[in-house]
Amino acid sequence: MKKHLFTIALFTACCIHAQQEIKLDIFDALALKTIEISYENYLDDQSSIGISGLINFENKSSDFRYNEKRAITPFFRHYFTADSQWNFFGEAFFSLNFGEKEISLDGGTNAYKDYTDGALGLAVGTKYISARGMTIDLVGGIGRNLFNSDAPVLVPRVGVNVGYRF
Questions:
Q1: Torsion angle, CA of 43/48/49/54, rounded to 10 degrees?
Q2: What whole-number distance in Å separates Cα of residue 99 and Cα of residue 39?
């Protein structure tokens, strides 16, 4: 019991003193009817860990949409600059994604098959941090699904995120 309390206290102490951010991908929300919310916790001035959650509300019949219906994406970021307002970063991520893949049948009709897969990927981006804590970051990258042949080969990681640092 003492080990559990010590672990919880240590984790809480690390999170209390670290800078944290919560953000929304406004590009996905406005253009693609998709909600992606991210949380980022800074380990030090040049590195952070975080997690993103994506839910896709776009219809299958839409001209452009993500293949993923849902995705959970933990990530690690390394910041190359220590400027107080503009920072450039590289990101490594793992995306656990769930979706539907269109399959052509012999009769000429198409069906959809559900899939679950995990993708490893890399992304790059830039982040602006205002003096009052508002953040805007641009990120772009790509990952490759590893486990399921029914899943799409590539998973995009793009966004324009607006958030708040506390």
A1: 150
A2: 23
Instruction: For residues 61 and 138, give the distance between their C-alpha atoms in angstroms, rounded to a whole number.
Output: 28
Cα–Cα distance between 40 and 43 in angstroms, integer? 10
* Tens digits of residue pLDDT in 83-115: 778 899 999 999 999 988 777 777 667 778 889
Residues 6+ apart with CB under 8 A from 34: 25, 28, 54, 55, 56, 57, 58, 65, 66
Among candidate residues 27, 138, 31, 117, the one with its CA nearest the CA of residue 71: 117
With b meaning 16 or more CB within 10 Å and e meaning fewer, what string describes 9-42? eeeeeeeeeeebbebbbebbbeebebebbbebeb
Write the pLDDT tens digit of every residue in 36-70. 999 999 999 899 999 999 999 887 766 667 778 89
Residue 143 CA neighbour count, 13 Å, CB half: 27
Q: Say what the pTM is.
A: 0.83
End-to-end CA distance of the chain: 32
Torsion of CA 20, 70, 153, 104, to 10 degrees: -170
* 38 Cα distance to chain centroid: 6
State both tokens at 6: 């010590």
For range 17-32, the mean pLDDT? 88
